[in-house]
Amino acid sequence: MKFWASDRGALALLLGVSALILLLGLGTRELWGPETRWANIALQMLQSGDYFDPYLKGEAYYDKPLPSYWLITATAWLTGGLGHWSLRLSSVIAAWLSIWLVYLIGEQLMRKGTGLIAGWMLATTFYFAFWARVATADILTVCGVLAAVWWYWRGPQDTRFSRYLVFFLLLSLTSLFKGLIGFILPGLLLLPHVVQGGRWKSHLNLRLCAALVIAGAFYMTPFILSHLYGAPTYGESGLGLVLRENVVRFFQPFDNIGPIYTYLIYLPVYTLPWAPCWMLGLWFALRHWRSVEPNTRWLVWGLGLLMLFFTASGSRRSYYVLPLVPFAQLLGAWWITRRMAERNATDRFGSRRLKIGFGLTAVLLMAILGVFYPWTNGGGGVVQFGETVRLEASKRAPLNTWRMVMIEVDNKVPMYLQTGGAPFYYVQQTQDFPRTGDTAALMTWLDNTSGQHWDPQRTIVITQYRNGDAVPLDYLSADHQVITTAPTNGERLFHGREDQSVAFIPRGE
User: With contact defined as beta carbons under 8 Å apart, do 273 and 354 qualify?
Assistant: First the structure.
C-alpha cells in the first residue's frame, strides 16, 4: 500500500491503466480510414523488399516521409508479419510515451500533482485514445513535440553542444514522421520563453549551429537513401512532396479546406470530457495574468501561437488539432491543482471525486474502445474474409505459390492476405480490363498489360463492390470458388454492409 501511495506508485498506476486503455482489443478492429494507406504502403514494402520507394495500390505515393512506414515494417518483422497489432503498435507506444511526457512536464514546471492529473486527463481523453489506436503518423508527431518540449525544459539555459544536439535531433525525427511541423510546433511553443528576457542571446553560438547542421543531415538521410537506392523509375521526389504538403498546402491549400473557425470547435471536442477544465483555466489565467506563475503564462502563450498557426493555414482538418490536446489538458490540470490548493490540499472529498472521475472514465473508454468497438467488428468483415481466403487457397497449394491481383479496391488493402509470395498486382478501375468474358480473356489481358505470365491455376483475383450492386467479374465464378465478406456483428445490429470484398480462387484442374 505504501508503494501505491508514493509518487512512483501513482505514476505506475497511471501508466498501467493507460496501457490497458491503449491495448485492449487493439487487434480485433478492422482497418479504418487512413489506416488503409499505411497498411498498403507497408505491405508493398514487405512484399517487394523495397523500403525506399513507397507505393499505394501499386503507384508511387511519397505523401509522407519514410520512417513512419519503417516503424510498421520493423514491428511486422518482430511480430512475424503485418497485422492489426503490428500496424498500430508504434502509435500505441507513442501515445503511452506522450502520457508519461505530459506527466514529467507538469511535475517539472508546475505545482506538485499537476503532471499526474494532466497524465490522467490525457489518458482518458476520448479522441486522444481513439487516434492512439489508429495507424497514422499523427500521434507520433504529438509524442515528438512533447519530447522536444520536455528536453528543452530540463535545462532552458544550458548551452552545451550535447543539449542542442539532442533537441534538434528530436525535431528532425519528429519531422520525419509527418512533415516539417515537427520543427515548427515545438519552436512556436517554446518561442515565448526563449524571447522573454532576451534568453535567445545566450543561444546564439557556434555549438547551436553545429548541432543544427548535424540534425539537418540526419533529417536528409532517408531522402538521400531513397534517391541512391530507390528504383530509378520511381516517379516522385520525397523532398518535393515535403514542400508541397507543408509549404504549398499552408499558403495555397489544394485539399482538406475547412472553415476558419475549425479549431475553435474541434479543440474543445478533442479534449472531451475534460474540455471545461482547460477553458476555465484559460479564463482564470487571463483574468489574473499578472499574478499567474511565469510557466503558466508560457503555456497560454504557446497554446495561443499553436492555435494561430493552425488557423492561419488554409488546409484544416479536425484531427490536425491533436498536438494541442496535451498542452490544453496540462492547462486544465494546472487549474484543478490550483483550485485544490485554494480549498486546502487536504480536501479529501475533492481528491476522491477526481479519482472516481478518472476511474470511471478509464473504465468507460476500455469498454467502448477495447470491448464494444472490437465486438462490432467481429463475426465477419475483412478479417474473417482474409482468413477464409487463406484457408481455401492453402487447401489447393502452398500459400507462397499463389499470386494475387487486386482490381480497384477503393483504397482498401487486404493486408490480411499475405501469402509470402509475390506482391499484389494492382489494377485501377480506369484501366480497360475485361468487364465481361471469361478467365482466359482476363489472364491474357494481365499477361499483355503486366509483361508477366499469369498462371490461371495460381492466381487469386480480389475486387470490391458496394452492397446491392452486381458482383464485378462475376464471369469468373464459372471456374472459381467465390468468397465474399460476411457482415460483422455491428453491421448485423445496426445496418447492412456497404462495401463488399470478393475473392475468386481457381477450383483446380
Answer: no
Give the integer Cα–Cα distance in Å for 338 and 283: 14
State which amino acid sits at residue 75.
T
Amino acid sitting at position 228: L
The three cell numbers locating residue 313: 493555414
* ∠ CA 454-460-464, rounded to 5°: 125
pLDDT of residue 104: 97
Q: Which of 383, 392, 348 is nearest to 482 (CA)?
A: 392
* Percent of the chain with pLDDT strictly greater than 70: 89
- Whole-angstrom Cα distance, residue 472 to residue 462? 10
User: Lowest-confidence range among 141-145, 314-318, 395-399, 458-462?
Assistant: 314-318
- Distance between CA 410 and CA 469 in Å, rounded? 15
* Alpha-carbon gap, residue 54 to 230, rounded angstroms: 10
Full 3-state SS string of 299-337: HHHHHHHHHHHHHHCCCCCHHHHHHHHHHHHHHHHHHHH
Q: What's the grid cell of residue 328?
A: 490544453
Q: How far is CA 298 from CA 10, 151, 189, 291, 305, in A?
A: 27, 16, 8, 13, 11
Task: Give CA separation, 158 vs 164, 167, 182, 203, 210, in Å.
Answer: 9, 12, 22, 9, 16
Given 3-state DSSP classes, what are the helix, strand and coil percentages for the chain, each rounded to the nearest 5?
A: 65, 5, 30
What residue type is 88 in one-letter code?
A: R
Q: What is the DSSP string of 323-380?
A: GGHHHHHHHHHHHHHHHHHHT-TT-HHHHHHHHHHHHHHHHHHIIIIIIIHHHHH-SS
Cell numbers at residue 34, please? 487512413
Q: How far is CA 352 from CA 328, 349, 356, in A?
A: 23, 5, 6
CA distance 17 to 439: 54
Are 116 and 10 in contact by the 8 Å Cβ rule? The answer is yes
Task: Please spell the DSSP secondary structure of 99-126, one letter per residue.
Answer: HHHHHHHHHHHSSTTHHHHHHHHHHT-H
Integer-rounded Cα Rg, in Å, for the chain is 26
Q: Over 150-162, what HEC string results?
A: HHHHCCCCCCCHH
How far, in Å, CA of 274 to CA of 437, rounded?
59
Per DSSP, the three-state class of 418 is coil
Q: What is the pLDDT of residues 24-80, one digit of tens each?
A: 999 888 888 788 888 888 988 888 888 998 988 778 888 888 999 999 999 998 888
